[in-house]
Design a protein that fits this description.
Order of helices and strands: HHH
Helix content: 40-55%
Distance between the termini: 24 Å
Length: about 55
Amino acid sequence: MHRDKVFKGYTSKFDGDWIVIYSEPAKTRSEALKREKALKSYRGREFIKQQIPL
């Protein structure tokens, strides 16, 4: 979706290549958006740092 520039905003302005560093399944779009919001929180970022050495 971001690559197709469907959404307007910061990510649609990025012309580089995206690399998936973490993913997890979600049954619904609503569930996925809730999880994305959680991962973008302070605790979510800490979780990602522990799981994925960047």
